[in-house]
Amino acid sequence: MNVLASIFLFSLLSLSLLYSVKAKEVSAWGDKYHVHIVNGLPDNTNLLTIHVFSGDDDLGFHDLHVNDDYEWHFRTVLPGVTEFFGHFWWAGKEGGFSVYNDDLAYDHCQTYVCYWLVKPDGFYIANKTNPNDLELSKLYLWN
Ligand SMILES: *[C@@H]1O[C@H](CO)[C@@H](O)[C@H](O)[C@H]1NC(C)=O
């Protein structure tokens, strides 16, 4: 092999290594994530209606009673590709946002669990099931 070819191959290798390290940082692709949406609203109020969907998956509409936990899981494919959206309705209020994407995973689902708790004052996330108040972060408000 001549010198130029070796240099070319070496660069290619370094580049792909660099890319996989960076990708791992951003999304941990190929990992299995569990997302939960839990109704943490008061007793004796309306049901919580949710609609969860991604670009190629529609998980449908679901009515959740108090403490119901709607859970699904998936494996990420490539960085930046997997994203699930949630739309929420309760007592005349509405909310809508991304319930899973790379940034959320990196910031809030380090344990491969994204646990959403829906409360009267907004939408909270934690990286484990049955979190205490200190382990919950409030990310969104009802509209
Ligand atoms: C889970 O979230 C808490 C904050 O609520 C954080 O202190 C902890 O480090 C996170 N766990 C992991 C494994 O990153």
Sum up the structure in keywords.
four-stranded antiparallel β-sheet, alpha+beta, elongated, binds 2-acetamido-2-deoxy-beta-D-glucopyranose, 22% helix, 2 helices, 143 residues, five-stranded mixed β-sheet, Immunoglobulin-like
Architecture blueprint of SSEs:
Blueprint: H1 3-27, E1 32-39, E2 48-54, E3 58-64, E4 69-75, E5 84-90, E6 93-100, H2 102-108, E7 113-119, E8 122-126, E9 137-140
Bound molecules: 2-acetamido-2-deoxy-beta-D-glucopyranose.
Residues 110-111, 127, 135 line the site of 2-acetamido-2-deoxy-beta-D-glucopyranose.
Q: How would you portray this structure in words?
A:
It is found in: Secreted. This is S-protein homolog. Pfam families: Self-incomp_S1 (PF05938). Belongs to the plant self-incompatibility (S1) protein family. This protein is of the alpha+beta class and 143 residues long. It has a single domain, classed as Immunoglobulin-like. 22% of the residues lie in helices and 42% in strands. The protein contains 2 helices and 9 strands. It has helices at residues 3-27, 102-108, and strands at residues 32-39, 48-54, 58-64, 69-75, 84-90, 93-100, 113-119, 122-126, 137-140. The chain has a 5-stranded mixed β-sheet with strand order 4-1-7-8-9. A 4-stranded antiparallel β-sheet has the order 3-2-5-6. Strand 7 and strand 8 (122-126) form a beta hairpin. The longest helix is centred in the first third of the chain and has 25 residues, at 3-27. The protein starts with a helix and ends with a strand. Residues 15-28 have low confidence and may be disordered. It binds 2-acetamido-2-deoxy-beta-D-glucopyranose (NAG). 2-acetamido-2-deoxy-beta-D-glucopyranose (NAG) is lined by residues 110-111, 127, 135.
